[in-house]
Each structure stands twice: as structure tokens, then as C-alpha cells.
């Protein structure tokens, strides 16, 4: 899929990874629907940086009616939808033994339920345009962290959902996922923790948002690739020998 003049919806496109993805795709020629919930200023800044080749859309993706309305709004504005990047997610610290039902429900609603219902709503448009969905997973799906178990389980679900969506959208449209490793670690991590993350990768460095954005672009453009989860982790999932 050539991105020139394609209509791409990026959820959570106003900050962090979403911002990098939206800018990368927009600068490749796509028109970007920049979704946000509470980051309106960031989303507007992305559209401004793209010199108006896009528009912001606000929605609380934990609500199924709002996910449906978001897709409908983009279709009403542009008449089609060629690509969907499912980036919006929460990353709450929830140590085992302290997790509440509310904690569980909130993270599953945004991280896993929302992507499912967004693609379900967008499926007819994606099939019509022979487009693609790219989900954002996490390498923690393969090696869960005890202090973030609900989050990790949602990303395990994203990996399974990617395979199911590839089947559901075929043969007209495609679904793939990117699973970032240590990219944009939380600012609260101290120097020792950052050093441990670096040592955990074969390439001995923290990744950049641009690394993920390039992978997303590849999966949107790769017309013979579907049902794949691409790790962008510097080799972390290979578990290098300890120094």
C-alpha cells in the first residue's frame, strides 16, 4: 500500500509513540486522523507539523459507542479509511497482590477491548480500500512483568487478536502488530534501571520512537505480510548472555 494520499487513523496520536507514528506516516504522504482523549494540544501540534494534512478527533476509547463514532466521523469527513494504527494504551503499575477489579477493567477496556471494536467498526472500509490495521503490542507479552500483569495480559491478547484479525480481514485487508521493547521507558526509572534495560538487549541501547514508527510504516506498506507480530526490541527477546 503506497501511503500517498491514504487516510490513516492513529489512536493516541498526540504524544509519545503515537506522535512519532502519526508524523512518520503523514510525512510519507498520508492524511492523518489524529485521535486523542486528553492530549488535544499534542494532537493539534501534530496536525500543525503536518501542515494541515490531517485533523484531530477526540474519543474515549473505553466506550464502544465512542469507538464506533470515531470511525464513523473519519469516514464522514474523508469518505474512506485505508489504515488503522491502534496505539492508544495505558501502562499502569499494578503490583500483584494489590490489583483491584477497577484496575483490571480499566486497562483491558482501553488496551484490548478498544482495538477489537475499532477494527470491527473499520473492517468494511479497510476491506473496500484493501487497507491494513497495525496493532501495538509489547515484548512483555512473552515475558510478563509481575508489577504490570494486567497490562502484560492485554498485550498478550493483542498478539492473539492480531492473528484473528488477519483471518477475519483476509483476503482483502491485512492485520499485523509491532511489539516494542525498551523504547521510551518511563521517566520514573532511575539510572540503574535504565542501565539494566540496556544490558538486556543485544544491541546495548534503548530504542527510539522512530524505530517503532518505521516498523509501523513497513507493515502498512507490505502488501504480502499479514498476521505477523514484529518485535522492535534491540534483540531483548532473544535473552542475551548475562555480562
| Helix/strand/pairing category | alpha/beta
Output the number of helix runs.
Answer: 7
Gap between N and C termini, in Å?
43 Å
In total, the number of domains comes to 1
CATH class: Alpha Beta
Question: What is the CATH architecture descriptor?
Answer: 3-Layer(aba) Sandwich
The low-pLDDT segments are: none
The Rg value, from CA coordinates, equals 17 Å
CATH topology annotation: Rossmann fold
Would you list the SSEs in sequence order as H and E? Answer: EHEHEHEHEHEHHE
Sheet with most strands:
7 strands, parallel
Q: Total strand count, please? A: 7
Q: What does the overall shape look like? A: globular
Strand content: 5-15%
In what order do the strands lie side by side in the largest sheet? 3-2-1-4-5-6-7
**Mean of residue pLDDT?**
95
Question: Helix amount, in percent?
Answer: 40-55%
**For this structure, what is the CATH homologous superfamily?**
NAD(P)-binding Rossmann-like Domain
Structural overview:
With 243 residues, the chain is an alpha/beta fold. The chain is built from seven helices and seven strands. The protein has a single domain, classed as NAD(P)-binding Rossmann-like Domain (Rossmann fold). Helix content is 45%, strand content 14%. A seven-stranded parallel sheet has the order 3-2-1-4-5-6-7, with helices on both faces. α1 packs across α7, α3 runs parallel beside α4 and α4 runs parallel beside α5. The chain is globular and about 50 Å long. The mean pLDDT is 95.
Amino acid at each position: 500500500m503506497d501511503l500517498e494520499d491514504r487516510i490513516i487513523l492513529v489512536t493516541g496520536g498526540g504524544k509519545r509513540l503515537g506522535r512519532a507514528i502519526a508524523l512518520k506516516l503523514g510525512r510519507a504522504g498520508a492524511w492523518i486522523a489524529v485521535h486523542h482523549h486528553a492530549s488535544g494540544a499534542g494532537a493539534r501540534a501534530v496536525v500543525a507539523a503536518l501542515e494541515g494534512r490531517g485533523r484531530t478527533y477526540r474519543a474515549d476509547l473505553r466506550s464502544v459507542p465512542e469507538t464506533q463514532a470515531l470511525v464513523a466521523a473519519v469516514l464522514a469527513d474523508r469518505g474512506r479509511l485505508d489504515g488503522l494504527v491502534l496505539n492508544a494504551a495505558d501502562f499502569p503499575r499494578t503490583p500483584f497482590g494489590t490489583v483491584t477489579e477497577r484496575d483490571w477493567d480499566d486497562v483491558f477496556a482501553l488496551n484490548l477491548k478498544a482495538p477489537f471494536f475499532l477494527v470491527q467498526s473499520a473492517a468494511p472500509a479497510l476491506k473496500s480500500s484493501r487497507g491494513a490495521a497495525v496493532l501495538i503490542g509489547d515484548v512483555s507479552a512473552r515475558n510478563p512483568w509481575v508489577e504490570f500483569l494486567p497490562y502484560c495480559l492485554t498485550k498478550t491478547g493483542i498478539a492473539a487478536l492480531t492473528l484473528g484479525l488477519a483471518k477475519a480481514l483476509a483476503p482483502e485487508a491485512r492485520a499485523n502488530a509491532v511489539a516494542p521493547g525498551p523504547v521510551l521507558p518511563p521517566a520514573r526509572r532511575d539510572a540503574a534501571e535504565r542501565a539494566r534495560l540496556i544490558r538486556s538487549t543485544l544491541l546495548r541501547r534503548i530504542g527510539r520512537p522512530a524505530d517503532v514508527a518505521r516498523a509501523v510504516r513497513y507493515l502498512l506498506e507490505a502488501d504480502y505480510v499479514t498476521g505477523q507480530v514484529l518485535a522492535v526490541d534491540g534483540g531483548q527477546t532473544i535473552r542475551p548472555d548475562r555480562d
